[in-house]
Queue: 2 jobs
Job 1
Amino acid sequence: MLLDGVRVLDLSRLVAGNQLTSLLADFGADVIKIERLGIGDTLRNWRVRGVETHWKAYSRNKRSVELDLRHPDHKEILLRLVERCDVVVDSFKPGDMERFGLSDNALLTRNPKAIIVHISGWGSTGSRSNMPGFGTVVEAASGLASRTGEADGPPQLPPGSFADMISGTYGAFAVTACLARRFSSEGFCGEIIDLSLFEPMFAIMGPQAADFELTGEAPKRIGSRITSAAPRNVYKCADGLWIALSGSTQAMSERIFTAIGRPELIEDPRFSSNNQRLKHVQELDEILGSYFLENPREVVLSKLQALQVTAGAVTTIADLIGSDFFESRQILCRDSGDETGTLIHDVIPRLRNNPGRIRSVAPSLGEHTREILAEVCFDQEVERILSHIDQE
């Protein structure tokens, strides 16, 4: 596998760090998950009917070790692991690692080529560095919430850990970029990655800063429309089901007009170009909406897809599981770590020649503590430290 031989020390909690290290683990990295003694990662508490669904999804292929970083022996174990790891990931508040005696200098003294990733809400510098920064607050601060929702409705937050997932994915890219340099250059001298939740979230919002500078106007909520192309929206059909439709190119818009039996709209001055369609988007949506409301979704989709229009059903997970598409792409697999065989997503992205794979299920708390201690300690140290852990 592409990352065979890479060892990652994961001190993070919650989603962003687990997403980052999960991506690395899926492609072969040995991820050693350091968990708080007796408590573990917070993700373990996010359960559905008693099943740790988040933990199972984002901690497969990892090894779990319980440590108490306030204990001198445990901190020494951690530093010995740093010596043997290529990457160290944490998500403590800026300054907390220093208070634990685990500053960047302390880590780099043990391993001068370490790649250290600090994950925080706002970054380790700047006026907000000491503020709490869970993804919810970041999603609101990035501009996403202000632009999500109907024009006459309130701002809306996404229904999931978007900021964390996006930040973790950016972080995995940064780590692999550093690893590429580390293994190709004798002169690599370590790297510190300051990964905030805010900046990746802001970046995926696109050119909102440039647009604001040019127009002097903050974008308003416009529901499922976009400001760059029309038509683009969700529409209700006669049977109460919904479709999503995008006509982002001129050719696609013309296909839409043909599919709904209104080819004359192609030459209509209101809709003959993208700029004109944006100016008359309300009228355009009313025409399209009326057509869809008069026809069942399957009829609509059949006509649109016959002309290769970019349209599809608005579906739920109930529609997706067991669908031909999911089966044909093998998007899901089952965690064999419990009697229920919890569904989890398979490894992505898909590589033809060097695919990632799920080698092991998400570990129980401290499952690999003895195993990892044996790698870095003498036998008598292992038993002494384990006896302290058992007492806790």
Job 2
Amino acid sequence: MTLIKKLMQQLKSKEFRSYLMSTHFWGPVCNWSFPVAAIADTQKHHSIISGKMTFALAVYSLCFMRFSLRVKPRNLLLFACHIINECAQLTQGSRFIYHNYIKTKV
């Protein structure tokens, strides 16, 4: 029961409310559209994959993963968003390479 009380006190605190109103919270929340879209696209036909855009989004996520750890205070919510996006983009990139370069040569 004390764990629930501590959690409720934390949620009511001024620090938590200010965190909810900061860019450290809303920036990553808005960024979650990238990995959600990329994960949804893994189920679609490989012909819709843009190699250039997949590469650009993979580099973008790498940069922001580094940024999220270097900024003070560290933004682990942003880091989680971009590591999932990086994995999704690498999946899409491997599908693109396989269907456009490997499968066609076999």
